[in-house]
Amino acid sequence: MTNSDEIRIPRFDAYERVMHWMSALSFGYATLTGLAIWSPKLYWMAAVLGGGFHVRGTHPWSGVVFAVMIGVMFRRWAAGMSLDADDRVWLTRLHKYATHDHGALPPSGRFNAGQKMLFWSQVATTLALFATGIVLWFPESMPRSLRLASIALHPLAAIGSITNILVHIYMGTAAVPQSMRAMLRGYVVPEWARFHHPKWYKAWRASHHS
Amino acid sequence: MIVAKLIDTTLCIGCKACEVACQEWNDQEYTLGTFGGTYQTMPDLSHNFWNLIKFNEMERDGGTSWLMSKYQCMHCADAGCLAACPAPGAIVPRANGTIDFVHENCIGCGYCITGCPFDVPRLSPTTKKVYKCSLCSDRTAVGLEPACIKTCPTNCLTFGERDELVRIAEARSVELKADGFADAGVYNPPGVGGTNVLYVLKHASEPEQYGLPKDPQIPWTVSLWKGPMKWLGSLMFWGTILGAFFHFVIYGPQDPAKHGHPEKEDEPSDKF
Ligand code: HEM
Ligand code: SF4
Ligand code: SF4
User: Fold this and answer.
1) Do B256 and A194 touch (CB under 8 A)?
2) Global pTM?
3) Which numeric CATH code is attached to A12-208?
């Protein structure tokens, strides 16, 4: 007799956890240093983080680390992130998901359609942040037209990306209990898997419990 | 009192004494330039060369013509460098209209280079901070005129109260028109609220020929970034945080025990 709570379904291996938290940490640092020079009202953050000159020096490097980590994440996850037929229906019922009307939702695989959309929009904003960030990094070797575009597009992409991540942090910490354990320790319990990711759970069961 | 510098390009003889005076007063190290086959000293401004006499050599008016101009910070009333600068106190508009760079506060981002419609600030590869003409704020503060003006041998450069200089410049262009230069006029571009460096030009309808932009303005992407985008950012940030908080307050966390449903009960059980 085993209690279902003691069964551990592996969700994220160490490679995935490290790549996720590396991108989260570099994103966090880039966000703080970026916000410090975003508005004079937030400039006190620069003082906390070592002064404006230091912040200007390190911000681009944290961006590079973040972009590389998103590249790693892309290689690892992109294949599993395309939307299937269920996902497309799921997206049209996003409001059902938000109001906990889970009965109205088609079953999800390893990632639900919302998570997949988060992934793709992070990939897109990271590409934009990286391209415009390189331009802003070396003002004297870039054409003025590119710099002018980047001055507006870099923060625009950042706003998009930060908004995504705020929602993501809310989902990961408060809205979906136990998902944090998946990303910190790597496993989930069957009840969680069955409720949140039924198709993924079925596949796991099929391969582990004949 | 707003001060200004008037450059009467028709009186410039290209002696470059002002360049030397600028280098000396500001104690600039000498950097070897490139010789471009013209009379010009340097091809461009640099972090340690803030004042360039341009010869603008061209064939026009029936012969070889030099449209002399003096290239340096314009000390704009509505300064693009200042609009773009993210570091409080790095670019300071002085009460006398001078736009001063305060290097202790500069973080070296180079945004001012992009914001400046005249392409003036330059990054130093060693200090990683930006430099440009200060209108000799360390001289004007104690009642001296800027070094370039002090040195100019032809009265091509005048320093003084801005309104007075505008009058002198207008009068001079009237004089030039009477002398047969129908296109003579004053360069004081309204797009940046006017500049505290004024020019008298022989061909005032073609400032580009002097290397001066025709209608300089603070770039709209800089204004967008400085203005509406700040609002968008705050809205998204606080909107998302409040939205998430109240979502939690209203709906609480997702709970398999409460939010499970009959169809899913058919799925294989975990209890065995
Ligand atoms: C510090 C803030 C963060 C927290 C607390 C956090 C938390 C989590 C958690 C708990 C999961 C697992 C969800 C599951 O098991 O389904 C997860 C997955 C994921 N994280 Fe994060 N994360 C953070 C930052 C980031 C950042 C900065 C990125 C990338 C830009 C990111 C990208 C992802 C992606 C693509 C997934 C897989 C799909 C998903 O769960 O949405 N995360 N995160
Ligand atoms: S010319 Fe450029 S650097 Fe000088 S005040 Fe105007 S915008 Fe600033
Ligand atoms: S380089 Fe210095 S002066 Fe120029 S915008 Fe950045 S902080 Fe301001």
Assistant:
1) yes
2) 0.90
3) 1.20.950.20
